[in-house]
Design a protein that fits this description.
Strand content: 35-45%
Number of strands: 11
Oligomer: single chain
Shape: globular
Length: about 180
Amino acid sequence: MINKYSSPFLALSLTCALFLPSCGSNKESGSATALSLIAGVYDDSVDHQEEGIDELYLEIDSRGYLSSYDYLGDSFDNYLNCYYVEQNWGQLIHLSENTFRYISYYEAVETSYNVIVTVAEGGDLTITNEEYPDVNSTVTKTSLIKSDFLSAECREGSSGTRTNGEILEKHKENSLTQIMPD
């Protein structure tokens, strides 16, 4: 899985550690050969055990741009009934077959590496780092669309809303997803 909060040298995400049975699923049904095959919204929630479940969604749009939606009313954040939205923080660029270039625009220094995207039955995706094939993670296809999140977006400055910096700090260690080993 892909992480907007990390450099490419950080550890495999808590997602794979906590959801090891879902990583590398045997339900593979084909390769993602174009962005249109992988465009959609995916559930990328993370169970942090005692800290609660962090409800997260990853959107891949038809141009390959990545956006994330973090529900702040979940048991992990335990805050407002709204979504923290980060749009176009990264991009997948189709190279060939099921190989894509992942580019993160989040950091001041652009990070990029190749990933292999496999589409499983039901549309779930397994995203694997090309250089480290044993490092992968799976996101679950949903029927949600961008407007579902934008209509419930947290507005900075509204009563009780945390600043972007406060939200990012809480999720820095428990980030969206990572597919790079140390």
